[in-house]
Design goal:
44% strand; alpha+beta
Length: 79
């Protein structure tokens, strides 16, 4: 399966982070546990679609969709 943006996965899909685009944003995301090779799962999406809640590195994190779009993942499982 090809890589796709984190912003486009469905609820409870699990993926592995393959790439993070963007300069300062990528550094900030890495500080929050979004690093290449880390498992990530979509927990919920706000009623209007933005922000999204993900589980990464053992904790929950809220991201704006435009930031989540810059995180490319490989989907490995759907619960």
């Amino acid at each position: 399966m090809s890589n796709k943006p984190l912003s486009e996965i469905k609820k409870n899909e699990i993926g592995i982070i393959q790439e993070i685009e963007g300069g300062k944003l990528s550094f900030r995301l890495m500080e929050m546990g979004c690093v290449v090779g880390e498992e990530v799962r979509l927990l919920a999406t706000a009623p209007l679609g933005d922000p999204i809640a993900i589980e990464v590195a053992g904790y929950n994190l809220s991201l704006r969709k435009n930031d989540a779009f810059k995180i490319k993942i490989k989907v490995v499982e759907c619960l």
